[in-house]
Amino acid sequence: MFLKKMMSDKVFWKTMLSLAIPIILQQLLSSSLAMVDNLMVGRLGDIPVAAVGQAAQVAQLINLFFIGICSGGAVFAAQYWGAKNMNGIRATYGLVMLLCGGISVLFSALVSLFPTQVISLYTDSPAIIAEGATYIRIAAFSYIGIALNFGLCTILRSVEQVRLPVIANAVTVLVNVFFNGVLIFGKCGFPALGVRGAAIATVIASLVNPTVILIISLIKRNILRCSVKKLFHFPQGFVRRFLVIALPAFVNESAWALGIAVTNMVYGRMGETNVAAMTVTNTVHNISFVALIGLCNAAAVMIGKRIGEGKIDDVKEYAKRFLWLAPTFSLVIGLAVSVLRRPLVSCFALSHEAAATAMVLLVIYGLEMVIRTPTYIAIVGIFRPAGNTRIGMILDGTALWLIAVPVSIVLGLVLRLDFATVYLCTLLAEDIPKMSFMLPYFFKFRWIHAVTDDGKKE
Predict the structure, then answer these.
(1) Please, are residues 338 and 397 in contact by the beta-carbon 8 Å criterion?
(2) 143, 144, 134: which is closest to 198 by C-alpha?
(3) Which terminus of the chain faces fewer neighbouring Cβ atoms within 10 Å, N or C?
(4) For residue 305, which of 17, 42, 43, 75 has the smallest C-alpha distance?
(5) Where are the alpha helices (DSSP H) in 159-289?
(6) Region 265-272: what's the mean pLDDT?
(7) What string of DSSP letters covers 193-213?
(8) What's this model's pTM, rounded to 2 decimal places?
């Protein structure tokens, strides 16, 4: 009965696909930026690939801080959108940009000033540290453009304007490919700069993205075009309410990011070959996970909007549908990754040992996705837009820091088990406990909260 009702609901599918497909395309383009870097740098050998991969882990860590802020912003923007409160959306827009911009400047300064110290947190290989520091000293300035892009795209998605980020990302990919080819290998009269060229291309591309979005927004007169006065006019009590919702999401993402950073530090001390294999696995992960990110963002917009409209019965029904769709999608994607692992790995110029390890890791990742995605979609796509940001902080913090991180340290650095075993056990140690606690909590439906004055229950 549930599946029949879901499959026959044309409005649900039309809305979901109209949101998810552009977001998937955008994420695919965004993920391809890192893949372009890794593919081109991969022609230089295992050490450059591993170095850029470790620098990417730093960027991923910082990105999660931005995601924490933007997750809080998305809660307010989507619910305000459902209530048609444009002033509330603009206030959210201003505060998100202010917070993301400030944090990005801080991290850019710290990483560019202390690149060797930052990379050495992730690996003890002198060769990888030297190459990684060369790359990240320059690439650190890309965090500013990335932060602006996160903020702008969050607001656009929340008001169901999802095409513009796709256009901006398409332009960005073309710019990145061009400058990577020119600067890494020395084309069009430029010197061959190796990993430094890849870093410069990353910085240029990161600034192109928000620039394209803002220029088109000015021309199209969309929600992003507003006066500075309106942008930073916060109603009484707004900042406090925003922080009450956003801080748990920020702490959640920050704690999760730091936990993942610790596990990556463990992986980085298990050999240069394994680091190169892990870099390829992470690259494929970023590409293959885009469908789930699109589904998750569609869920967040649809659920947040329905709460803003006061349609609580729709919220419950949609939440159950998305919770069912997540493992279904991930099963298909995971099997595809496992089946196609050989041609995927062959795209990278890895040593035979690194390639063999990467293929094993991709099978583990592909099959484990089915366990990971239900909790991911619940925390990020359902609980947060429904106004409950604390449960994710509790689930992620407990499972990762109390179980998965200790497991990775003990198995990887104390018992010195093989890399694939450590990787598998670390994933399962985080995801199985989280899903076990998430499911009973989900079906109690106590996570639905209106965070704006406009939202109310039916």
Answers:
(1) no
(2) 134
(3) N
(4) 75
(5) 163-185, 195-220, 228-231, 238-268, 272-288
(6) 83
(7) -THHHHHHHHHHHHHHHHHHH
(8) 0.77
Distances 322 to 72, 343, 365 between C-alpha atoms, Å = 20, 31, 21
Structure tokens at 2: 């549930």
- DSSP code for 348: S
Express each pLDDT in 106-141 by its tens digit: 999 999 999 999 888 877 788 888 888 888 999 999
Among 450, 78, 66, 43, smallest CA distance to 298 is for 78
Do 393 and 452 meet the contact criterion of CB atoms below 8 Å apart?
no
Q: Can you tell me the distance from the alpha carbon of 172 to that of 183, in angstroms, rounded to the nearest whole number?
A: 16
CB pairs under 8 A, 24+ apart, for 228-237?
230/87, 230/90, 230/94, 231/90, 231/93, 231/94, 231/97, 232/94, 232/98, 233/87, 233/90, 233/91, 233/94, 234/91, 234/94, 234/95, 235/87, 235/88, 235/91
Look at the block and give the residue holding tokens 């600034």: 207
For the record, the structure tokens of 403 come out as 């179980």
> Which burial class, exposed, middle or buried, applies to 62 when counting CB atoms under 10 A from its CB (0-12, 13-18, 19+)?
buried
237: left (phi over 0), alpha (psi -120 to 50) or beta: left
Cα separation, 373 vs 343, whole angstroms: 25
Rg value, the chain, Cα: 21
Give the per-residue pLDDT at 457: 42
